[in-house]
Amino acid sequence: MGSIEEDRSATAGKVISCKAAVLWGPKEPLVMEEIRVDPPKEMEVRIRILFTSICHTDLGFWIGENEAQRAFPRILGHEASGVIESVGAGVVDLKEGDHVIPIFQGECRECAYCKSENTNKCLKFGVDPMRKLMVRDGTTRFRTKDGTPIYHFLNTSTFSEYTVVDSSCVVKVDDHLPLDKMSLLSCGISTGVGAAWNTANLQVGSTVAIFGLGAVGLAVAAGARARGASRIIGVDINSAKFEKGRGFGVTDFINPKEIQTPVHQEIIKLTNGLGVDVSFECAGNIDVLRGAFSSTNPGWGLTVLLGVQAQPDLLPIHPMELFDGRRITGCTFGGFKGRSQMTTFAKQCFSGAVDLDKFVTHELPFDRINEAIQLLMEGKSLRCIMQL
Fold first, then answer.
1. Which of 4, 84, 157, 194 has its CA 20 to 30 A from that of 50?
2. Does position 184 have pLDDT exceeding 90, yes or no?
3. pLDDT for position 80
4. What sign does the dihedral 251-255-258-259 (CA atoms) show?
5. CB 199 within 8 A of CB 335
6. Which residue from 225, 257, 265, 221 is spatially nearest to 239, judged by alpha carbons?
């Protein structure tokens, strides 16, 4: 491909042929295909993706954890950054050449939820793993060379050199910020740090327990440290994660496989019998959630649910356990309203509030995406940034 400026002038309003990593079935290797990407329709933008990475949500869908989500062929991916190639009719706050990140949790700014300060959900463009087509007209913008429709994923589909995204799911960022690191803010880092800052509203001296020290859990730790938490207890069955966790602010580590008592009892001991102020469940495991809830202070403890539970299991909490003051809540995209708040959050990160470099453990070219999936599955990477 030529320069970005040359590509924009040559492709605006036309169907683009480009490479994409297409998933044809659960657990199948992604296939690098030449696909066709339609121009953006009304209120949509077409983005040239420059950097993308793999999140556990992508991995869960690739594995096929939930039968109801299956629709193939499909282009996964929702952590990315790039440059707008063209805009559709009606788009007024974005233009060709803007540096942007696509976001799976959109913000239309028109619905009752977007106008409320009490939620970051959007009625029209909120995250929906079942959605496989564009919201406004229910069609796809992707096709194979022979015309077979390819489905979208999480409002974004970033495992493609070009993608079409509704303008409600696009955040313009400052041109001087590095786009490779900006891709991290599309999901995992924002989710973890935002859970600590927005959902839990941690204060100086707060005590915290984090169950699961993947990228999201470590982002929670980074956010907790930035807020001045006095104790950050990391829980993971992989003891090798402790040294890495220490670099993100984890002060204590518990491996459930190496102790004889339940984890929550160990946490209560570490907190002088009180339990932590806030626990974060980042593993997507119903039994882990039970332990996270039990580790909090009975009078005011808060459990923040971040891990995605693929199975239709109910919460393992008896209603009477909530009467003393314990609470439990979910958190999506860190509680951030993407279009309204992500630009400020990005500036905070690059001003030193969060060290994004620590999350990048690998870098690979896009055509080695299956290697990146394997690294994540084996627990060897936090984020592998792929350049397209």
1. 194
2. yes
3. 98
4. positive
5. yes
6. 257
